[in-house]
Predict the 3D structure of the following.
Amino acid sequence: MEQNKKRPNIISRMPAGFLSLSRPVMIGIAIVCIVSAIGITIMRSSGGRGIEDLPRGTMMWVKCANRECGAEYEIDQVDYFLFMEEHEGEVEEDGEGEEIAIPMVCEKCGKQSVYKAIKCENPECGEVFFAGTVPEDFEDRCPECGFSKIEDMRKRARSGRQR
């Protein structure tokens, strides 16, 4: 006889106050939830991802590839990205047939020969060089002292995991 007892259905398991809500109130709650979900989706997909949202004052290194000049200096990252956006899709070939980005105009010599560069983070060095100067190695390997921040960080991460 005990096997014939009915199991509670989903309605009998709901909180007591839930069933007392009128149909228009439940529809209103559903509409508010749907509108909120749509609003959150729109806000997440449209905000804070453009160059104009980058803070001014974050500097980056550039270097002139003109052998007679060789100027090294910092520029605002926003200016660099705006230049790259303006010249998107424009490329030229380097001496080895590789496509490279259009260079910026050098502040010192006035020639269009300035590219993004890296400053060695070894405090005893500080060399400014183009990424990938050391072939088939980390792009930030300094040609002067051999330091690579990427390699250093990976070594630290590995030694931290092995402890």
User: Anything to note?
Assistant: DSSP finds four helices and eight strands in the chain. The chain has a mean pLDDT of 80. The two ends are 63 Å apart (CA to CA). Helices lie at 10-13, 23-46, 77-86, 149-162.
